[in-house]
Write a structure and sequence with these properties.
Oligomer: single chain
CATH topology of the largest domain: Alpha-Beta Plaits
Strand content: 5-15%
Largest sheet: 6 strands, antiparallel
Distance between the termini: 56 Å
Number of helices: 16
Radius of gyration: 35 Å
Number of domains: 3
CATH class of the largest domain: Alpha Beta
CATH architecture of the largest domain: 2-Layer Sandwich
Shape: flat
Helix content: 55-70%
Strand order of the largest sheet: 2-3-1-6-8-7
Structural class: alpha+beta
Order of helices and strands: HHHHHHHHHHHHEHHEEHEEEHEE
Length: 507
């Protein structure tokens, strides 16, 4: 059993054990008597109740309940009410197993909760009708309700964990199955639908009704794909029901045509062909909407650099800030900005600017750890999330990246070269749960890095300038340390003009 499960069981067990110890011999005798006499009747009451809900009943068959489940539930009631002290731990662990099974076979947690409510009502009625003294009755009812509540609580906890893992695995499989090549899959299914339509039209025009059952759209390759795989990919999309309805309409048209008398009028045939064509077009249109939704899911990647874009930044930062706080780990966020990028675009064109961005992106990707994250943050800006990295280590890493960027030189023909430099601002997390403060301070540090040397040095530039954003009193902010790195070379200040061979590949 996993640590998380064991931890939860131990918490519940600490509540159950003193509850058990509080039972008097008289109360134990009452519970044992009720369990022995009424367990089967309570199980019947449980299943009679949940079978009233068709959504719940579809998970179970009557035969299965009669042959196995009813007796199992009766045994469960006996275990809850009659369990010995030395077996309580094993009983608690068994509730986890039951909850996992419920998740695996698809029995909703609410079905168990509703059924448990009936069990408790039945126990109360039986104890109340036993003509016991008030104190014994109250104690027996209290234990029975509390024990069932704790057992069901553990079931639901296990159910939730199992369902969560299954959902994650399902989503991972869905993405693995399809999103590797969305355009290819879309084209394949469009071709399959079109191929079926052409075959159906040929059969109708040829008045070939002999194999039309095999040519129904629902039985075609497209229909099989829709029933089995498309449901997995797009199970929550509203277009799914529309496509299913359209497939049914097409099949109804074909079935009516097959059953019609020989020598149908051309007018009816024309209407049939038109109806099939329109419905197939509508299916194709809805398919386009479905696959477009997948493309939107893929939009988490920047198209130019293939880096993550800002869409997933909140997810990553929330996760990493949580880990940093929980385990008291350092963490650094850095923003890297290509210097004088507008001058590159103005002098050499946007194609050269795009190439510069791609080259910097590749350099950053090749020189960070696999545990770190890199995003395209803006036009010529990149954002790094350096996990388990404090201020001193972050400075070393970022200074190394800055130097590597400054060594990039792009040949654009003849003797013309573009040198690229970058400014870097970074902020170190020191405990605040709001990751937006990290972004704000890193951005402030970047502003200092880009402005301070220019203001102080005029036309000259310094390397390795360090700055920390300050508060209104001139002292550093107490919660976060924000630092910046600044280095630009003089060659970036005097860009050569566009040449006639600027479209040549950059080195």
């Amino acid at each position: 059993m996993k640590d998380e499960s064991q931890k939860y069981i131990s918490i519940i067990f600490k509540e159950w054990l003193p509850l058990y110890d509080s039972l008097t011999p008289e109360v134990r005798a009452v519970l044992k008597n009720i369990a022995g006499q009424q367990a089967e009747a309570l199980a019947t009451r449980f299943y009679d109740f949940i079978f009233q809900d068709p959504d719940i009943a579809r998970h179970l068959s009557y035969d299965l309940v009669q042959e196995r489940l009813s007796s199992s539930l009766a045994g469960w009631v006996k275990d809850i009410l009659m369990c010995d002290k030395e077996n309580l731990q094993a009983l608690a662990e068994r509730q986890y197993l039951i909850g996992s099974i419920h998740s695996r076979i698809g029995i909703p947690a609410e079905a168990v909760l509703r059924g448990a409510r009936q069990l408790k009502a039945g126990l109360i009625e039986n104890i109340r009708d036993s003509q016991l003294d008030r104190e014994t009755s109250v104690a027996a009812i209290y234990y029975a309700i509390m024990a069932i509540n704790m057992a069901v609580e553990m079931m639901c906890h296990a159910y939730t964990l199992s369902h969560y893992r299954a959902t994650k695995n399902e989503e991972a499989y869905r993405l693995y199955s399809l999103m590797d090549n969305v355009p290819l899959e879309y084209g394949k299914q469009q071709a399959s639908l079109s191929g079926w339509e052409n075959t159906a039209i040929f059969n109708i025009v040829s008045d070939n009704k002999s194999d039309i059952n095999g040519a129904l759209l629902s039985d075609s390759e497209f229909g099989l794909w829709f029933r089995h795989k498309c449901v997995r990919y797009f199970n929550k999309n509203p277009q799914m029901q529309e496509i299913a309805d359209l497939i049914s309409k097409v099949d109804a048209l074909l079935s009516a045509w097959k059953s019609s008398s020989e020598g149908s009028e051309y007018k009816n045939t024309q209407a049939l062909l038109q109806g099939i064509h329109i419905h197939c077009q509508q299916i194709g249109s809805q398919m386009g909407v479905l696959f477009s939704s997948l493309s939107q899911m893929q939009s988490g990647k920047d198209t130019l650099t293939s880096l993550l874009n800002r869409r997933y930044l909140p997810v990553v930062l929330k996760h990493e800030v949580t880990l940093a706080m929980e385990y008291e780990l350092p963490m650094t966020v850095a923003i890297i900005d290509i210097d004088h990028f507008k001058e590159i675009n103005d002098s050499w064109g946007h194609m050269v600017g795009d190439r510069a961005i791609k080259h910097v992106a590749e350099l950053l990707s090749d020189n960070i750890r696999s545990s770190d994250y890199i995003f395209r943050y803006g036009g010529e800006e990149f954002l790094l999330v350096l996990v388990e990295t404090g201020a001193a280590e972050a400075f070393t890493i970022l200074e190394r990246l800055r130097k590597k960027i400054s060594q990039l030189a792009f040949s654009v023909g003849a003797d013309n070269e573009i040198s690229i430099t970058a400014s870097i601002g970074y902020a170190v997390h020191t405990g605040h749960p709001d990751y937006n403060l990290l972004l704000r301070d890193a951005d402030s540090a970047l502003y200092v890095a880009k402005r301070r040397p220019r203001e102080r040095c005029g036309s000259g530039f310094q390397c390795g300038e360090i700055a920390a954003p300050q508060n209104s009193t001139g002292s550093p902010r107490p919660r976060f340390t924000s630092c910046s790195v600044r280095c630009v070379s003089s060659c970036a200040r005097s860009l050569p003009r566009r040449s006639s061979v600027s479209s040549m590949p950059l080195s």
